[in-house]
Amino acid sequence: MKILVVDDSSTMRRIIVNTLARLGYKDVVQAADGVEAWEVMQANPDIGVVITDWNMPNMNGLELVKKIRAEEKYKDIPIIMVTTEGGKAEVITALKAGVNNYIVKPFTPQVLKEKLQAVLGTNDE
């Protein structure tokens, strides 16, 4: 299963990709903003999960989520929002837009693992 990691910070993308690799997820593609992420999704129909930042240039994470959810073929793809925006209003906004789970930065590898397992319906204790 391919995972798309979207964040305008190359450092944050690297942290997430490295964490995913340690969890056994090696098939990962990356994008620096929502526009690039959308292009990557069109070129990779086998993407199974999207992990996206909220605050990015060009197209932010919330706009990306809405665009993904507007497409019938992507309506069931799990989306995890990773952001510094941890307020209740932001979480509710993201969930209403179609995000399946939410991670507030900074986070631990364990948190990413738990959120990923939650959206994928897996639990390998």
UniProtKB/TrEMBL annotation:
Any GO BP: archaeal or bacterial-type flagellum-dependent cell motility
Residues bearing PTM 4-aspartylphosphate: D53
Keywords: Chemotaxis, Flagellar rotation, Phosphoprotein
Name under which the protein is recorded: Chemotaxis response regulator
Organism field: Nautilia profundicola (strain ATCC BAA-1463 / DSM 18972 / AmH)
Domain Response regulatory: start-end pairs: 2-120
Necessary cofactors: Mg(2+)
Database matches in InterPro entries: Bact_response_regulator, CheY-like_superfamily, Sig_transdc_resp-reg_receiver
Pfam families cross-referenced by the UniProt entry: Response_reg (PF00072)
Database matches in CDD domains: REC_CheY_CheY3
Organism lineage: Bacteria, Pseudomonadati, Campylobacterota, Epsilonproteobacteria, Nautiliales
